[in-house]
Amino acid sequence: MTEQPQNLPVHIGFIMDGNGRWATEQGLPRSAGHKKGAEVVRTVLEHAKKRGIKVVTLFAFSAENWKRPKSEVDTLIKLFRQYMDEDIRELQKQKVRVTFIGDREKFPADMSARMTEIERETAAYTDFHVVLALSYGARDDLIAAIKKIASDILDRKYLISGIDETKVRDALSTHDLPYPDLIIRTSGEQRISNFLLWEMAYAELYFTPIYWPDFNEHDLDDAIDAYSRRNRRFGKL
Fold first, then answer.
1. Where are the domains positioned within the chain?
2. Which pLDDT value is given to residue 1?
3. H/E element, 183
4. Active-site choice (7, 65, 152, 176)
């Protein structure tokens, strides 16, 4: 493992891209890519924890992914169920906090209930926090935040002049998370795809051509080391 950088990112967001293309290039069905990608999640989380990262947000299923073929969506739902039954139970044993962002009501009722249960059971853990973005879209989250702020104003909780960054942040589903320091996208695509639009305003972006199923501990080290060499000025000199 590389030497620990002094300015380690606190919160890393992952846009896990390339499962389908990886499978196609291997001559395998797309479902094989998703299964392999789920295995990589375990490896990456374990290594991130070892490196001292405090929060990891995984963009696992976007609001737009519901538009994919039903067979692929069904495969992903099956994988999510398996992940909650096996991997998250292991995370619980390791005292990892797990939360979910996104429209969980679109999932089967038992899955939505399980998400709430997991959040409740792990709420007290503070050393490492894993956030799963499922049926998540940053625009939807911002719209929900705007509606909440409008409702608060109608309820006379504060005036329009009282709207500031804190009010917006508090209305987002990510309100209890630190802003992401580093966003990693795999597969060579260079876009953010409706992920944490408000939150990543000053995040460092790291794009790698490696497909997510091939992403490993060394690749995460490379991204962290690249981050550590950057000079984050937040608009200042």
1. 11-136+180-228
2. 42
3. strand 182-185
4. 65
- Quick one: fold of 11-136+180-228? Undecaprenyl pyrophosphate synthetase (3.40.1180)
Query: Mean of the per-residue pLDDT values for the chain?
Result: 95
Strand spans (E) along 1-146: 11-15, 55-62, 97-101, 129-136
Confirm whether 65 is a catalytic residue.
Answer: yes
- Pairing between β-strand 129-136 and β-strand 97-101 as defined by DSSP bridges: parallel
Specify whether 17 is catalytic.
Answer: yes
Token pair belonging to 158 = 């504060």
Tens of pLDDT along 50-98?
Answer: 999 999 999 999 999 999 999 999 999 999 999 998 989 899 999 999 9
pTM for this entry: 0.94
Structure tokens at 45: 């989380």
Distance CA 119, CA 31 (A): 28
Query: Catalytic pick from 17, 141, 181, 219?
Result: 17
